[in-house]
Structure formats: C-alpha cells, structure tokens
What we know:
With 125 residues, the protein is an alpha+beta fold.
Amino acid sequence: MSNIAKETLKIKKAFPSLQNKKIEQVQKIISSDSKPKPHINMTTKRPSCKQVIVPMSIENIKKLIKNSSAHIININQSLKSIKLNIMADFIHIDDKDIVISTNNIASSSDLQEIERCIKSSLYLT
C-alpha cells in the first residue's frame, strides 16, 4: 500500500464523517511541500539576558550578600541619579560570581556604573 493511501486511510479514520472531496483537500495539504522553517539566529550583539555577572572573591561575595538589599538600593540610587534607564532587581550567587538581575539589558555604560557602585559599597562596609 502506498504512503498516500495510508495517509488517506488515517484521515478517514480520524474524521469518519468527512466527505471524499474534503479528504482529498486535507491529503493535498499534508502532502504538499511546505516552505522550510526559518532559521533563527541565536547570536546577539549584546547580552541577551537581564543580568550583570560580576566575578569577585569569596570574601567580597559574603560581604555583598550580607547587606544585599542595601547594595541594591545604593545601585538604584546611583543609576537614577545619572538618569540611566536601568534598575537592579536583586542579587544572587552563581558559582564564584554574583549575578545582579536588572529590569533591562545592561549597556556597557550601565555595566561600568554598576561595577563602580559595587566596588564603592564594598569598601564602605
């Protein structure tokens, strides 16, 4: 039995009340050559996630996490004062780095400002 006949039988079993003309139309749709699926380019020109990853020593990570809410407030005040369109949401640890989740994707100037804020707050505590 050919593949077309098998497909027709499958359609007839799935839809027993369907008329022969409709079965032929469904068969044509199934067997027609559809366009290939578009290829999605997965590379981006800038960070694709809303996280700033800052590598640091274990001692500094412990200091930062101890008062993480205060550090988030300081970072956000600093970002707001220079009128950047980004805010830090929270800090968490990922292996030997800290990860600061933000509301938008950080640009290089945002990254520099966040790094400056973290360094200054670590020296103050």
